[in-house]
Structure formats: structure tokens, C-alpha cells
Amino acid sequence: MNAPLSSYSPASPADTLRAALAGLLDGLPPTQAARAVERLIASYRGTTPTDAPILRDRADVAAYAAYRMPATFEAVRSALGALADAAPEGWAPGSQVDVGGGTGAAVWAVADTWAGERDVTVLDWAEPALALGRELAGSCDRLASVRWQRSRIGAALTIESADLVTVSYVLKELTADDRRAVVDAAAAAASPDGAVVVVEPGTPDGYERIIEARRRLTDAGFHIAAPCPHSAACPIEPGTDWCHFSARVSRSSLHRQVKGGSLAYEDEKFSYVAATRFAPERPAARITRRPQIRKGQALLDLCEAEGALGRETVTKRHGPLYRAARDADWGDAWPPAP
Ligand SMILES: C[S@@+](CC[C@H](N)C(=O)[O-])C[C@H]1O[C@@H](n2cnc3c(N)ncnc32)[C@H](O)[C@@H]1O
Questions:
Q1: What share of the chain is helix, strand, coil (3-state, %, to 5)?
Q2: Radius of gyration of the CA atoms of the chain, in A
Q3: Considering 276, 296, 321, which residue would you say is the last residue of a domain?
Q4: Are residues 185 and 271 in the same domain?
Q5: Is the domain of 177 the same as that of 225?
Q6: pLDDT in tens, 260-285
Q7: Ligand 1 within 6 A of 168 CB?
Q8: Which residues, including other chains, have CB under 8 Å from residue 18's CB and lie 6 or more apart?
Q9: Parent domain of 203
Q10: pTM of the complete model beyond 0.85
Q11: Ligand 1 probe mutation, 21, 73, 170, most atoms within 8 A of CB
């Protein structure tokens, strides 16, 4: 049955992206797509080359977009959700620069988080990635005016001023000097009411790169809006643990082919920092692990506003708070907003 016109709502950017990515591999023999993905996985495993683009041609970028972009999109969307929660009511970026933006996952994530049009530029040194990003964005009216610009991250990088600068899954591909250069350039580019969001894989080394970026951003005068409910130093003893979160990603048939199994989803682990020039509205604490639910109690591992780690046991005696703890998820603010 057709939905009544009155309940019609246009597809969200997330749905539009999913459909555009599904069409990407149409016509490509499945074994060829799987081979391109396997080559990419090998490039990203271990020491990632920093002297030349990994995404060299259309097959590489199609494999990247089909295989990795849904996951990087969900990770960035989750980080932006936490930034949106910490921003004053009505704050939305009027402009975005996505550095090392590749096929544009962070641009789609911003469009999915905040309504309306904005001025957007994607910078990357891989022309095939920019070309495919432009092609995918063609399926979403709100992304029609995005500028896709070739640019190399290095000491000479300058970024035009923007309300939001995103750097997603890029630091791993850079030398230590270039990592510092891109974070400093992002900090310099953020408008007086702006923000910088950096996302990396949720691995111990990804977390270390985030902590280094976080330190540079606080040294440059930024507040930490998320995930930390404070701007003090990270309370994790170096080498003992790593702060990371998880975003659920639907698996495509390509994922099932490459990874085997029949699960309909997988969880993308990521580390991130959202830093703002404005004073954020931070929660009292954030849940830093999947809550452990036992009979009659929920155990929550927390990072707290004083810049310390803590654990809270919420039992049935706590009534509505107990119910909230049972529903709470890894990465949520705690306690939940009334
Ligand atoms: C893993 S991809 C991430 C793409 C996108 N940001 C995302 O989240 O899906 C890393 C991107 O960084 C770009 N990149 C790596 N080193 C670069 C450099 N030195 N200058 C410009 N872009 C670079 C790559 O071309 C690639 O598009």
C-alpha cells in the first residue's frame, strides 16, 4: 500500500548514502570487488605507507567506499551526535572542511546530524577518491554544492576557516610531523564559534593518536566537548587501556563475501575527540564500556567530570535510574538527561 502523501518524508542522508553505495558495485564481478577489498585491507594492516596515496584508482576507491565508508560514516556520525549534545541549543555548523575526506563519509555524517545546507570543502590528495566522493554526493541534493579539492597534508597545509573541521581516519596514514601539522591547521581554521572533530580506529594506537591530537587542541585553547566530560588530561594510565566506542554498521553482501558469516551487522570500534571553541554543556559522566547487566544490578564504567575514572553500581533500589542504566549504552552520557 502506498503511504499517504501527508506522511511522506524524504530519505535521510544515511539512507541515500546506503542506496548510493549499494549501486556502486553493480556490474562489478563479485570476485573482483572482493579482491580489491583484500588488497586494501592488506595496505591498511600494519605499517600504512605515508609517501603516496593508497587509493590509486577507481577499483581501490570503489572497494574503499563499499567496504569501509559505511563504518567510517557511522563512527563519525556517533562522534558528531555527542558534539551536538554538548553544543548550545541551536548550534549547527554553517560550514565544514573535511581534511583527508576521501569519498566524503564525514560530509554525509554532518548532513545526517544537522539539517540545512552549508558550505562544504573536502580536501584529499587522492583524485580518484575525490571523484567518487563527488559522484556519490550527486545522489543527495544537500551535498550538490560540496567542493572536492586536491590538497596534500603537510607542513604547507592551510585550511580555510570553517565552523567544523573534520579529520576522520586520516592520522594513521600520516608521518608524525604531518599529524601535528594537520591538527594545528584544523585548530587554526576553526571559527571563533567552531569545532574540530578527529576520529580514528578504536585500537590502542588509534587512541594514542587521538590523545596526542586532544593535547594539541587543549594547548590551542579548545574545550573538550566529547567524549570526555572534562578538558583535563585523560585519566587512563598510558599503556594500560584505551578509550574507544562502538558504532553498529549494517553489513552488505560484499562484507559477508569478504569476511564470511551471515551476521546482518558488525560493530565498528573507534576513538575520537570533539573539541570546541565555545564552552560545551558536558554531562556529569560518560559510559566508557558496554554496561554489565547482572541480576538486579547494572555496572557502569565511567569517565567523570573531575577527570577521573569511576564505576557505579545501579541496583533495583534506584528505581527509574536502574531502568535507565539497563537501557544505557556504551558511549552514552550518564546520568541520562531528564
Ligand atoms: C582511511 S581514508 C579516510 C577517508 C575518510 N576521511 C573517511 O573517514 O572515510 C584516509 C584518507 O586520507 C587521505 N590521505 C592520506 N594521507 C594524505 C595526505 N598526506 N594528504 C592528503 N590526504 C591524505 C587518503 O587519500 C584517504 O582518502
A1: 40, 25, 40
A2: 20
A3: 276
A4: yes
A5: yes
A6: 667 889 999 999 999 999 999 999 99
A7: yes
A8: 70, 250
A9: 13-276
A10: yes
A11: 170
